[in-house]
């Protein structure tokens, strides 16, 4: 039986080089997906799963990200005076209560495991913690982390979100070696980070994790893995070697890799089409655009 998870870590220290030159001026995490920044999707998902405290692992040049979660009294007052209650409600979704959000710095880019380790002093010695990568945006009826929390309360241990990917893409992910496939839930007997040959499966680890405190003990060792970085996958794999349970959870939903330009564009189209206020006009535009391109061939 898992202990209740109320804290989440958001690693957001990356430079966002795939989105240069835009990310020279603004953090990638506040780039808008339709009309909400990427980070807001992750925050909303965490809140829906019962997260109460939010820990951001940042780096130099991320002040716009921090400002986004601050109160904007002048803006709120202006919207209220103009009767724009819908917009006011959307703006207030970004507000955080005092003390609910914390920032720690990752001064060197040494991998995802290192980024998570940077938050260690804000996690109690007996506390499990969630980790959400904002680049992975998941469209689902029930938020992905909430799905995982429900399963985790029954299993305990460590849990990662997982999905099948084409074999030719396996080398881009951490991959599960499966001991017992129970449908939605998979018990792992091993994990491999970005296997170049002979991957144990095509079940890839996606950017949602629930971690026991023992993972931080492993990360304290600072051992480097694939790419010369401290890999979170390696620390989770150590859990298995030391006899602790690790599970993969096949979430229901559609995942978009918004860390790539093509993935970001696909997410923009999907989320735009799903919006009641935009979908009809947008679908007409896309249909006309595709028809025009085909006619020109």
From TrEMBL:
It is an enzyme of class 2 (transferase). GO terms for biological process: UDP-alpha-D-glucose metabolic process. It catalyses: alpha-D-glucose 1-phosphate + UTP + H(+) = UDP-alpha-D-glucose + diphosphate. Pfam families: NTP_transferase. PANTHER family: UTP--GLUCOSE-1-PHOSPHATE URIDYLYLTRANSFERASE. Belongs to the UDPGP type 2 family. This is UTP--glucose-1-phosphate uridylyltransferase. The lineage of its organism: Bacteria, Pseudomonadati, Pseudomonadota, Alphaproteobacteria, Rhodobacterales.
